[in-house]
Structure formats: C-alpha cells, structure tokens
Amino acid sequence: MSLSSQLGIGFMRTLAHVPLPLARGFGAFLGRVLHTVAARRRRVVDTNLALCFPDKSPEERRRIARETFVYVAQSWLDRSWLWHAPEATVAARLTVKGSAREIDEIANGSEPMILFAPHFYGLDAAATALTMHTARPSTTIYTTQRDPMVDEWIREGRKRFGNVVALNRVDGIKPILAGLRKGGLLYLLPDMDFGRDQTVFVPFYGVPASTVPSLSRFARLGRAKVVPVVSKLTRDGYEIEVLPAWQDFPSEDVVADTALMNERLQGYIDRMPSQYYWVHRRFKTRPDGAAPVY
To answer: Taking a C-beta distance cutoff of 8 angstroms, is the pair 259, 229 a contact?
Structure first.
C-alpha cells in the first residue's frame, strides 16, 4: 500500500463533490498537458490514427489526438463521482437511450445477454448506468492492477451498484459461462490486443489486428444474445446508447464473427473517433513476418 495510492484515492473522493464543469475543466487542462508531455503515448495515438484513418488529413488526425487525450483525463477523473458521489448525483448525470426492448430486457429480463461494450472512454459510466437499474446478476472482467489498493478501489467502484461479480482474466471461462447460463448479464470488452495466445487476426480498419474471439465464443457457449452498448462523454455527464441485439450472431465461424465485430465497431467509432481508446497499442501483436508499427 503506497502513500501515493492513498493520496490519489483520497483526491478522487474529494473531487467527487466538485461541480462537474470545474472537474471537466481540470480534466481538459490535464489532457492538454498529457498530450504535450506524454511523448511515447502520443506516438501510439498518432500511429493508430495514421493506420486507421489514412484518408484523413494530418491536421484532422492531430485534432482527434488532442481531443482523445482530453477525454482520457476527463473520463478518468469522472470515476471520482461515478464511484463516490451520492447516488442521485450519479443518476442525474447518466442518460440511457436507444432500443426500448433491449433496455427493458437488461433491467427485467431473464435470458442470457452479453453487453458488447467497446473501449470508448465512457465504458465505466455505461456499466454504472446499466447496473444501477437492474437486479440481474452481472459479470464484468478486469485486469488486475499492480498496486493492491488501486486494484481494490477499481474493483469496488465497478461493483458499487447492482449485483455485480468482478472476475479477473485469469479466472477462466467457467464462472463467466455459469453466470450467463443462469440468465445473467456479461459486460464484455473484447476489442483490445491481449497478445497472441488464443486470438485471431482479423481486419480492424483494414489492418490485421490480434483480436480475442470471446464475443462469438461466449455467445455460443452461453446461448446468449449480443447487445452493443456505446458510451459517449457529454457536457452534462454521459449518454449511453443501447443498440438492438445483433441478429444471426454468433455463426459457426468464430473468425468471421470476430471480423464482423470489428467491422461493426468501426461504424460506432466513425461517429465519434475522438472518444475511442486510441492510447492502447492496438496493433502491438503483429502477424508472423510483419514489421512492428510502434
């Protein structure tokens, strides 16, 4: 347990009670600073944008890069009020819209459902908004943090509302499938590069990307429908859009399903490219013989 972690969590607890415009203003300032000083991470963002948006002008890509660093900082600081502000404050800042049928099923249904939640910066806000309004058991998967105190803080924050089980990636698929088969929800974020193990290479903006085929496999093994959830950071908080369930998914072809997932994800990103998680090295794992890009 480090002093810096204690101070950091204490700061977030205090920030939870600061008016949102002030907190967002501080986040915007911090994001601009990070864009300037975090040279290595800025190169990752610039590389991702150049690979995924070659038809955009350099000026447009630089604008997206600057904005994405602001969203990184603002969304991280927003975890202060998501996890520590009064429940009424949290509820007032989160708006859920979209498919009425799927929203009702999330709240009141009993059939297995996977919420496909891509890595937009509002991903924790979306999880909070949906679990606030359902008593259904819900599972989320997270990566353990190096600092035990920070790890516990994140895990407890994500379990704050509802009936949430937070599993580590090393826990395997059995508890995930057990939760689905009991009629639970699975909040799944499979759109990152987790290395070469148990992944497939499918296009992401035309670039071969190492992708975990978990969405297709969990949907098939858990006999679950897939409902996309897209989160957007707004001036007043977050807007969470619940889209209609995917039809004819999964198929018998896991690779084709995973390619389709990336293709549909691109459509969600194109609506608000600055809010996607470009700070991640999405193409760090390369096909055999391919040169590194970072």
So the answer is: no
